[in-house]
Design a protein that fits this description.
Blueprint (H helix, E strand, L loop, with lengths): L1 H30 L5 H27 L2 H4 L6 H13 L6 H19 L2
Helix pairs in contact: 1-2, 1-4
């Protein structure tokens, strides 16, 4: 059971990385340069997070079957847009909620089927 908790932590790390990439892009827009200190700090923080998350993923795969834990990665399709709404004020269509429900349902079916 702890493997699923670690998997969800990896998904959260990946989703956080996507948000940090957007912050990097915004920093480039503000400064006009990729080589601005703020931009580089955000970008390298993102790369470090991705590195740590990748190591965590490999450790998870030592104990779990890829087919059983990989469906959890779909949670990033829920977390990232919600976080983009919170941090950047981005909007999404009402059909987003239908898609989100389908993703959650698919994950539940996949997890139940893998038991």
């Amino acid at each position: 059971m702890y493997i699923y908790l670690l998997t969800i932590l990896c998904v959260i790390g990946i989703a956080a990385g996507q948000i940090l990439f957007k912050f990097s892009a915004s920093a480039i827009n503000e400064s006009g340069s990729f080589f601005d200190i703020k931009t580089l700090a955000i970008f390298f923080s993102t790369m470090a997070l991705y590195g740590i998350t990748s190591i965590g993923w490999v450790l998870i795969l030592r104990k779990a079957e890829l087919g059983k834990v990989y469906p959890f990665m779909a949670l990033a399709f829920i977390i990232v847009p919600l976080a983009s709404r919170f941090f950047f004020g981005e909007r999404f269509a009402p059909m987003y909620f239908v898609g989100t429900a389908l993703i959650v349902s698919g994950i539940a079916v996949t997890v139940m089927a893998s038991r």
